[in-house]
Automatic annotation (TrEMBL):
GO molecular function: 3-hydroxyanthranilate 3,4-dioxygenase activity; iron ion binding
Function statement: Catalyzes the oxidative ring opening of 3-hydroxyanthranilate to 2-amino-3-carboxymuconate semialdehyde, which spontaneously cyclizes to quinolinate.
SUPFAM superfamilies, sorted: RmlC-like cupins
Species of the source: Artemia franciscana
GO biological process, one term: quinolinate metabolic process
Keyword terms, alphabetized: Dioxygenase, Iron, Metal-binding, Oxidoreductase, Pyridine nucleotide biosynthesis
Residue stretches spanning the membrane: none
PANTHER family (UniProt xref): 3-HYDROXYANTHRANILATE 3,4-DIOXYGENASE
Claim: Oxidoreductase is one of the keywords in the record: yes
UniProt GO cellular component terms: cytoplasm
Name used for this protein in its record: 3-hydroxyanthranilate 3,4-dioxygenase
Names of required cofactors: Fe(2+)
Length: 300
């Protein structure tokens, strides 16, 4: 199936390699983060070094891919600390409500995706005691962008709890709107390229879920073929991994997607993904929080 001559390259798209190259300075301290797309879905490129002592708890899944170099992700799994190393070329999907502490190093760049919060949702920054047996300090706050985390961390380092290392009556100032998930077993990162090789035959005839488990995030890899999609649950991120593909969004001109080209589609838009032989396209959608009734007003 060769469709190259049928369409011209028009419309706005972003190439992941070019985006990283153009933002090298921003991906180093003190910023280390550059937003690639922002809407109901947030797509970041994250560099380093940035080492952290805090753990963050969110009410949504978190997608990780390491483009260059390795990172460590410390999590609290069933109340026990665990170190997860995500190597270059590996993908990982962290379930919602798992305390996490990402550690990023020099000359590394990764892709991270999460959904925007509704007006009612809060994130948590938490510090544990030295032996991880108790919560030393936690604060719930409204997350809008990565910079909104730093003031919460700064408050901890001037607190009495930070100085003495012992929890106090001020360690927690409010009843938690939700508790960490201490039932789920967190999976392992894996090589995206090796997964594509293992599933090559199946992908030549359609599409596959990249992750198995109880996730709200939908991560699909499309192989050779053509699919028409309309997603009412959230915005969609498209990433061309191999070959040549075509993205046809209703009401817009068709975009040619070559390797590492990306696109972003607003919820409710009908689109068609057409892939030549051997092409592979990653599609990520984070459905909104079904428990909230204000999502539509927030992001329309």
């Amino acid at each position: 199936m060769n469709m190259t001559t049928r369409f011209e390259m028009v419309g706005r798209k972003k190439n992941l390699n070019r985006f990283v190259m153009e933002n090298q300075e921003v991906l180093r301290p003190a910023f280390c983060t550059k937003m690639m797309y922002e809407g109901q879905l947030k797509v970041y490129c994250v560099g380093g070094p940035r080492l952290r002592e805090d753990y963050r708890i969110t009410n949504c899944d978190q997608f990780f891919y390491m483009k260059y170099g390795d990172m460590d992700l410390y999590v609290m799994e069933k109340g026990i600390p665990r170190k997860i190393t995500i190597k270059q070329g590996e993908v990982f999907l962290l379930p919602a409500r798992i305390p996490m502490s990402p550690q990023r190093y020099s000359n590394t760049v990764g892709l991270r995706l999460e959904r925007s919060r509704t007006r009612q949702e809060l994130d948590c920054i938490r510090f544990y005691t030295r032996d991880n047996s108790d919560v030393l300090y936690e604060r719930w706050f409204k997350f809008t962008e990565p910079k909104s985390i730093q003031p919460v961390i700064d408050d901890f380092f001037v607190s009495e709890e930070s100085k003495i290392g012992i929890p106090s009556k001020n360690s927690k100032l409010m009843v938690a709107p939700y508790e960490p998930n201490e039932k789920v077993c967190v999976g392992e990162p894996f090589s995206l390229e090796q997964w594509l090789d293992r599933n090559s035959q199946k992908l030549n005839n359609g599409k596959l879920d990249l992750f198995q488990g109880e996730f709200k995030a939908e991560v699909i890899v499309y192989g050779t073929g053509e699919d028409e999609v309309v997603n009412e649950e959230g915005d969609t991120f498209i990433w061309a991994i191999h070959g040549t593909s075509f993205l046809d969004v209703a009401g817009e001109a068709t975009r040619i997607l070559e390797v590492n080209d990306t696109g972003y589609i607003r919820r409710g838009r009908r689109y068609k993904i057409m892939r030549e032989d051997g092409a592979r396209v990653l599609q990520i959608t984070f459905p909104h929080n079904q428990d909230s009734n204000d999502w539509q007003r927030t992001f329309d």
